[in-house]
Amino acid sequence: MRKLINDPDNIVDELIDGFVLANKDKVKRIKGTTAVARIDAPIKDKVGIVIGGGAGHEPLFIEYVGKGMADAEAHGQIFTSPSSAVILEAIKAADAGKGVLLVYCNYAGDVLNFNAAQEIARDEGIEVDTSLIYDDISSAPLDNKEDRRGTTATPIIIKIAGAASSTGMGLNELKGLVDTASINSRSLGVSLSACTLPETGLATFTLEDGKMEFGMGLHGEAGIKKVDIMTADKTTETILDLIIADLPFSEGDEVIALVNGYGSTTRMEMFIVARKIHQYLGQKGIDIYSTEIGEFCTSLEMAGMSITLIKLDDKIKEYYDMAADSSGYIKL
Amino acid sequence: MRKLINDPDNIVDELIDGFVLANKDKVKRIKGTTAVARIDAPIKDKVGIVIGGGAGHEPLFIEYVGKGMADAEAHGQIFTSPSSAVILEAIKAADAGKGVLLVYCNYAGDVLNFNAAQEIARDEGIEVDTSLIYDDISSAPLDNKEDRRGTTATPIIIKIAGAASSTGMGLNELKGLVDTASINSRSLGVSLSACTLPETGLATFTLEDGKMEFGMGLHGEAGIKKVDIMTADKTTETILDLIIADLPFSEGDEVIALVNGYGSTTRMEMFIVARKIHQYLGQKGIDIYSTEIGEFCTSLEMAGMSITLIKLDDKIKEYYDMAADSSGYIKL
């Protein structure tokens, strides 16, 4: 295994320690847990934003804690949901008496544990609600879109939640806004290689040389179509056709276009994809308000990329434009 | 080859197009060249900062063009210096009559072409000077430190040059400051796998499974020691011992500590390394002013990482702390 680690059993503990040491002006670790919070949490007169999920997707979620982003995060073991106990600690760290919104991705384990933590917190008198992210169009048909997995729209949805909450918006209105951002998001990815689990040294799946798979999940979940590796342009067109038809995105729409690298994708490749997105959406009359390029949500060192389109309205755009300051996402 | 590209001959052209389209509020392409410049270049009353080098190291150098960073960049083909003609165009785009400082890494091809462009520009009446970066301690002994290659100190040195130039500092003083930052920087890396050249599909070198190599260059240049893969902690200690002894860094020194991923390094691994850097420098009484973690300077999708320490003085710290806004480096 070609990885720089120490004891495989301590990976998550050590990564959180390193993250907090490197960002000690911004974040703190919640003692005895794998949760972190903004250094100044809880923030007075603000609904707390709590995020979380399994490790192995860094910068997701841990690096999206900060000013204008989330207030606290619960980090699980690799590709495993955090426990409800850890999520509860994150909720308590984020709550300043104005309530907490849970923003996370739709996976069975996460839903189970976040729901359990939500119930306990409510019993303890904390107002808590949930906005689920389910942008991955490959994981269930449109008729069952609430069954879809959450993927690479997540950093932008967290950013919008963080910005809106910092204006003092109440929990109900905030949930409505974040749900709208989530409903208006669509993603689809393509994998070119598997990743290796650091605890075992085993690959998450196998993909023969020369093949690529559309719709592969962030934990190696089977995709929707395996084909010979296509050009970047053809790959981009294929993804965009499916995403555009799904919402649908229409002429005159204004969008954020995000290109996400899964782990070992070069920025060179991501820029070549971004070039085609601009050309292709231009032909369709869809206006790109902003292009985001980076490894926002990884699957360890998997090769490949996903494209996310988020349809904007004036409100979402206003919160997208606000400043953000986290280790994984900065906006001036 | 597991890469998302189109025609291998057009990679650099297309990546620059995509980069400029994605950042059109910040940068422009200099027509007919592989050079880019700040959208508002040349900037009045400011020495221009011109950077550049081969492609394949993105975000280096192209993504360090922006406010508080460089004014123009010359991008070469993959692992190949830009031509003197392209560098000359970048110099002209950056020059507002107050002169231009060339800031780039010490490689024979780059030195040849940047020097040629400098001579032509001077002949045309533009005041030009050079600050070379040569932080890689593995590439030549201390007695010949001017022969060393420039590596992962580069983004921070560009950041300091960009900030200082934006205060209106003259060319001579600026060169002195940037040279000091360069002289106070030391880096050393370790590779865990090779990368594949997208034009040919060939690996840059071979490294048997289970081995790691210290001092491997960014283009597959041979390193100084091949060993069985060690723990992250032991790897970090080994690198720090060599870096600390080389400057030398001493008790009471204040440093920027940078962990750089080479391409397919997970942030998980980089945080585990950062944790050890904090522990180890703490034991030595060396104070970490700031920790930078990211893929700042890659070798396509090579696995492994490098550590850079930059010794600070009050002046360098002042310019490091100023705001920066480029696609590859943002500071609030």
What does this structure look like?
2 copies of one chain form a homodimer. With 332 residues, chain A is α/β, with parallel strands linked by helices. Chain A has helices spanning 11-22, 84-94, 108-123, 154-166, 171-183, 232-246, 267-284, 314-321, and strands spanning 27-29, 35-38, 48-55, 66-67, 72-78, 100-105, 128-133, 185-193, 211-214, 225-228, 254-261, 287-294, 303-311, 324-326, 330-331. Chain A has a 6-stranded mixed sheet with strand order 1-2-5-3-6-7, sandwiched between helices. A 6-stranded mixed sheet of chain A has the order 10-9-8-13-11-12. In chain A, α3 links the parallel β6 and β7 (128-133). The radius of gyration of chain A is 19 Å and the shape is globular. In chain A, 61% of the residues are buried. The interface between A and B is large, with 61 and 61 residues.
Overview in brief:
Chain A has 332 residues and is α/β, with parallel strands linked by helices. Chain A is built from eight helices and 15 strands.
